[in-house]
Amino acid sequence: MAGDGASITRSSASTIRRTTRFVSSRSGSRSFAIEPAPIILEFGSTIVRVGYAEQFQPQHLIALEDSIFDHDDNNKPKTKTNVTKTESQWYLVLAPTMEQIYDRLMCKPSTRRVVCVYKPYAPVAFQKALTQHLWNLGVPAQVHVDSLQVVPIAQGWKRGLIVHVSREEAMCACYANGYIIPSTIQIVPTGYKALLHGKVNETTGKTTYTVPSSPSELDSVMEEKLLNEHDPGSLVVALLMCFQECPLDLRAQIVSNVVFCGDGVVLLPDLPRRVVKKVEQLLERTQEEGSLEPSAPSSATPSATGNPVYAMIPVNWSSLRPLAARLTLKSCAPHRADWISWVGASLWAATWNKYDEDETPIPWIFLPSNKAETTL
């Protein structure tokens, strides 16, 4: 019996020592903050996509009262364009939209962080007004993300070329090893709106747009607006310029992974194939150097309001011809082309949301402690 008692005592002491070591090591480590999934808000030209991270599609689509960018039928900025709106004006424009967002989500703003996704050239006044709205609602933290930056996350590729076609404009940029290469960003003022017929409602005064009913008419407009190699505002020109600005050691890998996304791809599903085919034909064509020299339009110069600099075709593009054999169009599948940025932001936020606050790569901006800083 005495031996049995001594054995039990030694076993208990050993267990206590092991437990003590475990508790002491855990108590000295940093704690992990597990929070509810953040809210993802993607602001497009005319719509806001809303939902929770960890999902593979937005739960709600809310129409914007004013487009972030608005152009007339000639694709030139209106005299009273939204680019010139002040922060206070944007605050009033966003007020009903922000109210709808939380009504649809049925949650308190103070319970979840927010990831805002929009194009990199959105007006600064718009960005400030959106930030102020979230602070005034009591959101604990927020982060603002480039919509192009998160596209590869949805599909898991490291190098490629992203082409985004929206209502008012189209843009393309090269992506390599987690970053957009700034020098490759090309923007042209030719979105899918340029291919549509506009009709003014006499009662409301609003303009509605419809796709041309005749396929031949749609083809001719597409050739003139988006596929014209002599027009600096065409999407074909933007891709050629993007190729030229891409670093030489990355060109071959990037052109083999060309991804089209945006509302324009959903509305015109044949557009990516036609654009890539046109670029491939131009690169394979045997011409003398400098034969493609379109005249630069007035919109090609940067303005004081911060409008993007539109793409210009390279004068000497003979060095791009070897890329024709590698040029490959990839699909956004399994995601929709107009939702892929939202999905990428959702996966990004869901992956890093549960990690230690000191180690997460998400650059969260926390609610200012001074209440005076959160009022407009």
UniProtKB/TrEMBL annotation:
Domain of life: Eukaryota
InterPro entries found in the cross-reference section: Actin
Region described as Disordered: spans on this chain: 286-305
Comp. bias intervals (Low complexity): 294-305
Listed name of the protein: Actin
Lineage of the species this protein comes from: Eukaryota, Sar, Stramenopiles, Ochrophyta, Bacillariophyta
